[in-house]
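Project outcomes to date are best conveyed with an example. Our students and postdoctoral researchers have been running inverse folding experiments weekly, and each run begins with a structure described purely in C-alpha cells. The record below, which covers 182 residues, was selected by the lab manager from last quarter's runs and is presented without edits.
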C-alpha cells in the first residue's frame, strides 16, 4: 500500500518528534530549494523556523498536523500574535495586520501550511484548517495568514476554503496577500 493510501488524521502537536518532522517537511518545500517550475506547480513555503521558535509557538497554541501512522504528512502552524517580533520576515505582516484589524480583535496567525507531495489533492489542506478552527475557536475569532502573491497555488487553495483578501502589500521587493478566515 502506498503511503498516500493510508488513513490520514489531523490533530495537534504533542511531541518534539512531531516538531522535528514539521521542520524536515518544511525544509523539503522551501522556496530556496525548489525549481521555478516546482514552485508554480506545487507551491512553496518561505519561512524556515528554528526548533526553539517552533516549540515556543506550540507551547502557546499547539500546531495542527496531519499524520499517516506516525509520519507527519502536513502541518498548519499556529502563531499567536505575541510572536510578531520572533521571525524577521514576518514583522511587516504583523504591522499590516495591526493597521487593518481593529483592537481588541482576537486573531490567530496561521504561520505556514504545507502538505507532503505524496499526500496532496486529498483534502488535507481543508482538514488542517477545519481542525485549526475547531482547536482555536474558543480563544480566537479569526485566522489570518499571508501568502506570497506569486504562490498562486496557495492563494487559490486559501480562497477555495473561504479566506478573503484583507490587504495586499509589498515588503523587501516582494508582494504579499494577507487573507482572513472567520
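After processing, the design step wrote out the following sequence:
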Amino acid at each position: 500500500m502506498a503511503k498516500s493510501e493510508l488513513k490520514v488524521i489531523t490533530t495537534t502537536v504533542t511531541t518534539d518528534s512531531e516538531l522535528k518532522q514539521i521542520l524536515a517537511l518544511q525544509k523539503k518545500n522551501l522556496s530556496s530549494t525548489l525549481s521555478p517550475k516546482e514552485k508554480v506547480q506545487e507551491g512553496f513555503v518561505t519561512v524556515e523556523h528554528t526548533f526553539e521558535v517552533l516549540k515556543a509557538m506550540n507551547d502557546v497554541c499547539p500546531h495542527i498536523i496531519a499524520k499517516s501512522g506516525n509520519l507527519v504528512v502536513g502541518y498548519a502552524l499556529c502563531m499567536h500574535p505575541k510572536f510578531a517580533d520572533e521571525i524577521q520576515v514576518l514583522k511587516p505582516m504583523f504591522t499590516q495586520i495591526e493597521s487593518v484589524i481593529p483592537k481588541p480583535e482576537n486573531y490567530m496567525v496561521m504561520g505556514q501550511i504545507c502538505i507532503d507531495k505524496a499526500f496532496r489533492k486529498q483534502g488535507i489542506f481543508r482538514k488542517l484548517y477545519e481542525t485549526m478552527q475547531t482547536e482555536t475557536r474558543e480563544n480566537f475569532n479569526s485566522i489570518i495568514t499571508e501568502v506570497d502573491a506569486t504562490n498562486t497555488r496557495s492563494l487559490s487553495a486559501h480562497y477555495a476554503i473561504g479566506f478573503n483578501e484583507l490587504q495586499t502589500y509589498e515588503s523587501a521587493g516582494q508582494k504579499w496577500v494577507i487573507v482572513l478566515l472567520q
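The CA atoms of residues 106 and 148 lie 24 Å apart. The two ends are 38 Å apart (CA to CA). The training component of this project remains on track.
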